[in-house]
Write a structure and sequence with these properties.
The structure holds 3 protein chains of 3 kinds.
Chain A lengths: L1 H7 L4 H8 L8 E5 L6 H17 L3 E5 L6 H8 L7 E6 L1 H8 L11 E16 L8 H10 L3 E4 L5 H13 L4 E4 L3 H9 L5 E5 H10 L3 E5 L25 E9 L4 H15 L2 H9 L3 E2 L4 H21 L5
Parallel strand pairs in A: 1-2, 1-3, 5-6, 5-7
Antiparallel strand pairs in A: 3-9, 4-7, 4-8, 4-9, 4-10
Chain B lengths: L5 H24 L12 H22 L10 H21 L1 H13 L7 H22 L12
Chain C lengths: L1 H13 L2 H19 L5 H8 L8 H26 L10 H10 L3 H35 L3 H15 L7 H15 L2 E2 L6 E2 L13 H17 L22 H23 L5 H15 L12 H16 L1 H7 L5 H11 L9 H4 L1 H32 L4 H20 L2 H20 L4 H23 L4 H6 L1 H34 L4
Antiparallel strand pairs in C: 1-2
The chains are: A alpha/beta, B mainly alpha, C mainly alpha.
Chain lengths: ~325, ~150, ~500
């Protein structure tokens, strides 16, 4: 049954949704955003929420519960009923935070149902004022000649983990330096105090387009269709760094698979609207088209990757 | 007038103990790191040590000067504390209006004489006013009323 | 001439009836929210943020910005009248504002802070319209080492803001820094002093700290106390609200210095109105011939921080709009309001969206004028609030503080933190320890620690590399000079006092 729905998803999405709407939702749906108001995850969730109100005919309440690297809001989700009326939109932080936080009050596999990969985009390595090279091959050579400082958005952030992956994969004599958030990491790079920063397209491309920073590499085996001019890490012969950044939808643990499929389809419909498509184009990102089961595989794989990396570099508690 | 400034002595000793405890806890639980990459324990250890030193100085100064007795009004502390704790416990379970009502009721009983009717009216008015400002006006996403059971 | 054209374009945008309405709504709401203790600009803007999806970006930003700087106008009101900061950046205003109110000069204090807010805001707007791109470039050249040096200078300069013995003042600064170290360590990710609590992973919020320490602390020590009824009805009369010629004469230079200090700290991403207010106060106390008047109702002590925090409010838009990088959580919200509409702030914003940029700048002027006109007549009303019996007032304040603390993260634990800080604040009052240096240590501590550790990584453990940086080296040298000068002048003052005592009554 699950595979049939998955196969039908692309073409008969609206049909699936029609079948689904008989019993869900029966009331307002709360989407927890584990970040503050006005951030990129929050604005994305709100935009999707506006579309979903049209689809569901029920109010969609965005509830901001920031804190502890998204874990406060995520914990709140795990305590809700798995009836689909409480959902969570989170970034890859949901896989990085458990790797470093000892005080987690839930099991990231048992207590969370991955439902839908909403938005995905590759990580981009950008260089600041002090980096001379203009592509990844050049950067790898330059990094052997002098000490490079790879700026991160903080210890345990995805930019930190990705930077460590790059240092290991390319065997660079570089150091990471932690800033408080992506904004600070980028200003310090622009000012030449640190050398690079790694983040998703949406957060770095505006500055690349301004000419303030240089896009050195897309961390993927091949070039990214929306940014064909940027060298990929695979081309430069570096492997093992091809992890994607994403924004995704989760429910409490033990959700009925049929319900998860149905919510997955409803969100896909919301993502297909013109306004959401425009938002994706603006952010150099693509909508995910995975079934809950397929996404769950990626979710648990990422959890494990970060857990092992955190152990290897001696991070966290 | 007391022959010693016990206020400063107690405060100084308390600060010294707090600083010492923080420094000890930091040193025994967190890595100190190296000078290049300092660990999480380095700065708290130094700060705790500095606080202990300042605490001792304050206490010593208190030994050398005269002081005044102090009074602590426990009833106010307990009633206002209870009021805030009730708010914190109730807001997620029962919603904003009951939480405000109980918190205001308890708070108004902190000061003698207690006038029950006046307190009830005040709690009612405050519930209405906060509802109007935060839920009707600012559209805060807190339920007005809730019942968890 | 280009500037004039831009200003005309901006004025044209800002004066459109709908934008004018949103500007008015924003500043009105801001003042209102600012007066209520517990609800800061961040909470207020978060609550209204969803509206921006349905407004055009210029109108949305004009309104949100209005709330932001409007809050700072209103923030000083509760500081002066109740000794409770309405917003964190107004905490310093308590130091001299509340004594003024107790002396029956609440009206004067409110009038001076309103005028000072307007002057500071205007100064900030001038800097914003003339020098935005240059300042943004300059701000980029500030690296971790430079921030460290600057914050250290700030700490040394401001460590004497309270009227207490040096040991007590310093102990409180250190305690503040220690309290600030609670939470996830910014450089290692290790949770410090959290004892298994998830709500503590982000540390204590500054508003929880300020509300508890000052707000709840004040209530705890006032309730049940024999209250001085110094506020008689006559202080609510217009005649008693007009500042004396002496007040005005004393306020000129603090206002100018406060504006300059505020503009500087506002424009640096990573510092903001609260630090600006602290610094402005510290500088005034340092340069004053009569530092002993501070803390007892000195007019300079309210004018300097109020010009500084309002100037900082305006210049905080420089990094946000010209670099696309928010210096604070509130600025991140402003940025979010633009991004919702697909507008990416950055160096090209001024060129590509001139109507938005200049419209916003001109709306700041209009907003500040509205605030001036709005606040002056309200002074009489606010002063009359003091005539409300305290037994009705304090439960209301308490409830507002609770809701404010809760609303920031929808986390009841934050309410309990406010209580914890309230008990601490009460304890400090009983013990005769000053709370303001604690807040200072709390604000500056994490910056100093984080930036120092960061700069040591970048310098590869070589401190001389830090000294060799032009900004950091100069500032560190200044800090050393200030330390020496403080010690020397303290010794001199003690000697002078001793001589005076001998020459006078002989002890």
């Amino acid at each position: 049954m699950k595979t049939i729905i998955a196969a039908a998803l692309g073409t008969t999405m609206s049909m699936t949704a029609a079948w689904a709407q008989a019993d869900f939702p029966t009331g307002p749906v709360t989407i927890i955003v584990p970040y503050g108001t006005g951030g990129s995850t929050d604005t994305t969730a709100r935009a999707i929420g506006i579309e979903l109100e049209q689809i569901w005919g029920q109010p969609v309440v965005i509830q901001n519960q920031p804190g502890a690297g998204s874990m406060i809001g995520t914990t709140a989700l795990t305590m809700a009923d798995a009836d689909g009326h409480t959902l969570l939109i989170n970034t890859a932080a949901i896989t990085t935070a458990p790797a470093i936080q000892a005080e987690l009050q839930f099991d990231p596999i048992e207590d969370i149902t991955p439902i839908s990969l909403l938005i995905t985009s590759p990580y981009v390595l950008v260089g600041g004022a002090n980096v001379q090279s203009t592509d990844f091959s050049g950067f790898l050579e330059e990094a052997q000649t002098r000490m490079m400082f790879l700026g991160t958005a903080g210890p345990g952030s995805s930019s930190h983990f990705m930077s460590e992956l790059v240092i290991r994969a390319a065997n660079l004599p570089a150091e990471v330096v932690h800033f408080s958030g992506g904004g600070e990491a980028q200003t310090n790079m622009m000012g030449g105090h640190s050398d690079t920063y790694i983040s998703t397209t949406a957060s770095v491309m505006p500055y690349v387009n301004d000419g303030r920073v240089k896009a050195l590499a897309v961390l993927a085996p091949e070039r990214f269709a929306l940014l064909p001019d940027i060298q990929s890490s695979g081309e430069a012969g570096i492997e093992g760094v091809d992890i994607e950044g994403w924004v995704a939808l989760f429910g409490p643990g033990g959700m009925d698979p049929a319900l998860a499929d149905q919510i997955n389809a409803d969100f896909a419909q919301a993502m297909a609207t013109a306004s959401m498509q425009q938002m994706l184009v603006d952010n150099y990102a693509v909508a995910g088209d995975l079934t809950p089961a397929e996404f769950a595989a990626i979710y648990s794989r990422d959890l494990q990757t970060w857990d092992e990396l955190a152990d290897a570099i001696g991070l966290g508690n | 007038m007391l022959d010693r400034d016990y206020r400063d002595i107690v405060a100084g000793v308390a600060l010294a103990l707090a600083g010492g405890a923080a420094a000890l806890y930091a040193v025994s639980n967190y890595a100190l790191g190296t000078f290049t990459r300092m660990g999480p324990g380095m700065v708290p250890a130094w700060l705790g040590g500095a606080l202990a030193v300042f605490g001792v100085i304050i206490a010593l100064q208190g030994m050398a000067q005269r002081g005044e007795p102090v009074t602590i009004r426990t009833r106010v502390l307990l009633m206002l504390g209870a009021s805030i704790v009730c708010f914190a416990l109730m807001i997620d379970r029962f919603g904003m209006v009951p939480a405000v009502f109980i918190a205001a009721l308890l708070a108004s009983c902190a000061e003698a004489p207690i006038r029950p009717l006046r307190s009830l009216i005040l709690a009612g008015v405050l519930s209405a006013v906060t509802w109007a400002i935060f839920i009707a006006g600012l559209r805060l996403t807190i339920p007005s009323f809730d019942w968890p059971y | 001439m280009e500037l004039l054209g831009n200003l005309a374009l901006g004025l044209n945008t800002a004066l459109s009836p709908s934008n004018l309405l949103y500007c008015f709504l924003g500043v009105f709401l801001g003042t209102f929210v600012g007066v209520i203790p517990g609800i800061g600009p961040l909470a207020a803007i978060s609550m209204l943020f969803p509206i921006t999806f349905y407004l055009d970006p210029t109108a949305a930003l004009i309104m949100l910005a209005g709330i932001y700087y409007g809050t700072t106008y209103g923030g000083s009101t509760a500081s002066i009248l109740l000794n409770i900061p309405g917003a964190t950046s107004s905490a310093v205003t308590c130091l001299d504002g509340y004594p003024m109110a107790q002396q029956g000069r609440a009206g004067v204090a409110l009038m001076m802070t309103t005028v000072a807010s307007f002057a500071g805001g205007s100064f900030g707007i001038i800097i914003l319209s003339l020098f935005s791109p240059i300042i943004a470039e300059y701000a980029l050249s500030f690296g971790p080492a430079d921030y460290f040096a600057l914050m250290l200078l700030g700490l040394v300069a401001a460590s004497t803001i309270a009227n207490a013995s040096p040991a007590k003042g310093l102990a409180m600064v250190v305690l503040g820094m220690l309290v600030a170290s609670v939470g996830t360590d910014s450089q290692s990710g290790v949770a410090r002093f959290t004892f298994g609590s998830m709500s503590l992973l982000d540390g204590f919020g500054i508003s929880a700290m300020a509300m508890g320490l000052f707000g709840i602390g004040e209530i705890l020590s006032s309730v049940g106390n024999a209250r001085s009824t110094a506020i008689d009805k006559s202080s609510a009369k217009w005649r008693n609200m007009v500042p004396t010629r002496d007040d005005v004469r004393r306020s000129w230079m603090p206002g100018l210095r406060g504006s300059a200090i505020g503009s500087f700290f506002g424009a640096l991403p990573g510092t903001g109105p609260s630090i600006a207010a602290f610094m402005a106060y510290a500088v005034e106390k340092r340069v004053s011939d009569t530092p002993e008047r501070f803390g007892k109702g000195a007019i300079e002590g309210i004018v300097a921080p109020e010009t500084a925090n309002n100037a900082a409010d305006q210049t905080a838009f420089i990094p946000t709009l010209t670099l696309g990088i928010p210096g604070s959580a509130t600025m991140a919200l402003m940025l979010g309001a633009l991004m919702v509409h697909g507008i990416q702030p950055g160096p090209t914003l001024i060129v590509q969206q001139p109507a938005l940029f200049w419209g916003l700048v001109m709306s700041f002027w209009i907003g500040n004028i509205i605030l001036l006109v709005l606040n002056l007549p309200l002074i009489g009303l606010w002063v009359r609030m003091l005539l409300v019996p305290y037994q009705y007032l304090y439960p209301a304040i308490l409830v507002f503080v609770c809701i404010g603390a809760y609303s920031v993260r929808a986390n009841p634990a934050d309410v309990l933190m406010v209580l914890g800080f309230g008990v601490l604040g009460y304890g400090l009052r009983i013990a005769g320890l000053p709370a303001a240096p604690l807040l200072l240590g709390f604000v500056l501590g994490p910056l100093i620690e984080t930036q120092f550790r960061r700069s040591m990584v970048l310098a590869q453990g070589d401190f001389t590399t830090i000294m060799a940086r032009p900004i950091a080296g100069t500032v560190l040298a200044l800090t050393a000079l200030l330390l020496v000068w403080s010690v020397v002048s303290a010794i001199r003052r003690r000697r002078r006092l001793a001589q005076a005592a001998q020459g006078g009554l002989g002890g």
